[in-house]
Amino acid sequence: MGAIPLQKEILSRLKQCRGIVRAAVGFDNIDIKFAGQKGIPVCNVPDYGTEEVADHTLALTLALIRKLPYIDQYVRHEKWDWSAIGSVPRIRGMKFGIVGFGRIGSAVAKRAQAFGFNVAFFDPYVPSGVEKAHGITRYETLHELIESSKVITIHTLLSEETYHLIGRPEFDLMTPETILINTSRGETLDQEVLIESLTRGKIGYVGLDVLADEPKIPEELKNSDRTILSAHSAFYADESLKELRRKAAQSARKFLLDQKERSLVNECFLNFK
Questions:
Q1: What residue stretches are annotated with the D-isomer specific 2-hydroxyacid dehydrogenase NAD-binding domain (predicted)?
Q2: Cβ–Cβ < 8 Å for 152, 178
């Protein structure tokens, strides 16, 4: 079940609402601007699954590079033959491009470095010097990052700015060796162009934890032997779900007690008149 939309029609009926807690990272189902204009603070739980999503991103990446789904099926249905895996590149030194360098993007960078990837990122909103602190490369444009990277991972929130952030111009820069991973939001990619690029062999492999119209799964993605799909499960671990519930309840308590909440997502729109 998807998130319940809280748009102007519903929010305008709220007369005594002290705050809205989105028990998730994404909050694109809420009209945060209108809520702010009504004096309703909105917060999310931005960090409950950081480790899990970062781990999942690397798991998808490694599985695709090492062709684990293919060789597993081959061994089960054919025979024990290492050469069936075909061409596999070495990971050390491979350029790993991260789109969005927030909590999850930086956690992914740390893990990718441990495997020997040559890590780079694009994010116009992080301050200068972050790249020096992490010992990685920063690109000033998204296209430069895509052109130079063999692995591209998406870690942005969904907004008007990031909707179809990876569209036809970006897919045209990719190659049959490109590995694309998305554990953020399905709509950050133009899914139709993704399917077209995959079908025509213009992109190599795709790991998707999110889709544009979940839970619908396009047949082209379901039937491709160059995709891994994981049902929006990247966030999940037994511990992360407990952490989510605990932190959401703590935020609700803060709203009721008029205490400061650090994870407001509409502070710039708030009007307490």
A1: 58-234
A2: yes
The 10 Å Cβ neighbour count of residue 269 is 19
Contact call for residues 99 and 145 (beta carbons, < 8 A): yes
Domain count, the chain: 2
The domain of 261 spans 8-47+236-269
Is residue 3 one of the residues assigned to a domain? no
pLDDT tens profile 160-173? 999 999 999 999 99
**Exposed, middle or buried by CB within 10 Å (0-12, 13-18, 19+), for 136?**
buried
Tell me the per-residue pLDDT of 145-200, one tens digit each, with 9 for 90 and over.
Answer: 999 999 999 999 999 999 999 999 999 999 999 999 999 999 999 999 999 999 99
pTM: 0.90
Place of tokens 């897919």: 171
Q: Would you please indicate which residues are annotated as catalytic (active-site) residues?
A: 185, 214, 232
